[in-house]
Design a protein that fits this description.
With 223 residues, the chain is an alpha+beta fold. It has six helices and seven strands. InterPro entries: RVT_2.
Length: 223
């Protein structure tokens, strides 16, 4: 591992040992090289999903296996435990792996399973609580609706002058909305409609605060 300290000046050249064939992280083509290395998945009967190249699947008889990839983290699910274990053994021969057992959490989402009812839930209570504390909303009064009926929003409320836009640039609106959007993408599509790109003060309060308070009221909800 190379750790840069201070400001780099000029051009940096590096000589890699001939026996070291591992791609450097953050190189321009490291993602391409990683996916090329995963090309052997097709030899195991796995197909790459056209909609998401980080998703591989395999169907056989009345069973299936799905493999999800995020950087170098893998999440494997399937209807046949024997086939899942077989795939794990095959992958362990190709990669240095650590089997963490039944999935409990991934990418800020907690995974709860009800095997009796045959249901699986994704929860983000810890993530939402962290966001609330970050924007000092952890003690605010929760609400139960996506947007309060007393807010009357219009395009006329958007920032119009350069001074208004400059003021909005100092407001952590983008950071707050970005934090909320991650929950929206994962488990909370009900808060998607209130995200704007050119908010004024009123819109900022309406969208950001209301969404945070709604998330507060429903931190235990999942999908």
């Amino acid at each position: 591992m190379v750790v840069a300290r201070g400001k780099k000046e000029g051009t940096l050249y590096m000589t890699v040992n001939s026996h070291d064939s591992i791609a450097l992280a953050s190189a321009n083509n490291d993602a391409e090289l990683w996916h090329c290395r995963l090309g052997h998945m097709s030899e195991k009967g796995m197909k790459q999903c056209n909609a998401d190249h980080c998703c591989y699947f395999k169907r056989f008889d009345n069973s299936f296996i799905i493999l999800l990839l995020y950087v170098d983290d893998m999440l494997i699910g399937g209807s046949c435990a024997q086939e899942v274990n077989k795939l794990k053994k095959q992958l362990s021969k190709q990669f240095e792996m650590k089997d963490l057992g039944e999935a409990k959490q991934i990418l800020g989402m907690r995974i709860n399973r009800d095997k009796v009812a045959g249901k699986l839930f994704l929860l983000q209570a810890e993530y939402i609580e962290k966001v609330l504390k970050r924007f000092r909303m952890d003690e605010a009064k929760p609400i139960s609706t996506p947007m309060g009926s007393h807010f009357k929003l219009s395009k006329r409320d958007s920032s119009k002058s350069d001074s208004e836009r400059a003021h909005m640039e100092k407001t952590p609106y983008a950071s707050a909305v970005g934090s909320i959007m991650y929950a929206m993408v994962c488990i909370r599509p009900d808060i998607a409609h209130a995200v704007g790109v050119n908010p004024a003060d009123m819109l900022t309060k309406a969208v950001t605060l209301e969404k945070l308070k709604l998330c507060m009221a429903s931190t235990g909800l999942g999908t």
